[in-house]
Specification:
This protein has 132 residues and is an alpha+beta fold. 19% of the residues lie in helices and 51% in strands. The protein has one helix at 2-26, and strands at 30-34, 37-40, 47-67, 70-89, 93-98, 105-115. Strands 1, 2, 3, 4, 5 and 6 form a 6-stranded mixed beta sheet that branches. A hairpin with a 2-residue loop joins strand 3 (47-67) and strand 4 (70-89). The longest helix has 25 residues, at 2-26. It is elongated, with a radius of gyration of 23 Å. The termini are far apart. The relative contact order is 0.20.
Length: 132
């Protein structure tokens, strides 16, 4: 019984270490943006804000910051940078770091747009065909 328990513990630990290595390899690139959420007062209103980006890579390389697949700025042979960027967003917008030579997407983040406008219609709570 003790042998089985020891085998299970050893197997669990080796599995845990393997998962940690996989997470470390996938998190080698980091892209942060602030603020992450913009609140607008009316639907279909454009949100104007200054986004602060900070990113780090494990090795130096050419890199471009994209806004929904549109180039914002590129850097050559660098592993980290900071950028303030004036953005006009109306819907959820994806920002990603891409190597322009290979097309590999290294990191991604998003900015959400939320409306404080209350909807005028309420969802019906019961079916219209109810007998009661």
């Amino acid at each position: 019984m003790k042998l089985n328990t020891s085998i299970v513990i050893i197997f669990s630990l080796s599995l845990l270490l393997t998962l940690e290595d996989a997470v470390a390899k996938n998190s080698s690139s980091m892209l942060n943006v602030s603020p992450k959420i913009c609140v607008i007062s009316q639907e279909k209103q454009v949100c104007e804000l200054t986004l602060n980006f900070e990113w780090k890579l494990t090795q130096q390389q050419d890199i471009c910051l994209l806004e929904n697949d549109k180039q914002v700025q590129c850097w050559q042979k660098t592993s980290q940078a900071k950028l303030s960027y004036k953005a006009y967003v109306q819907v959820e917008t994806l920002y990603s770091l891409v190597n322009p030579k290979t097309g590999n997407k290294l990191a991604q983040t998003k900015v959400e747009v939320q409306s404080s406008h209350l909807k005028t219609q309420r969802r019906r709570l019961r079916s219209p065909w109810s007998f009661f």
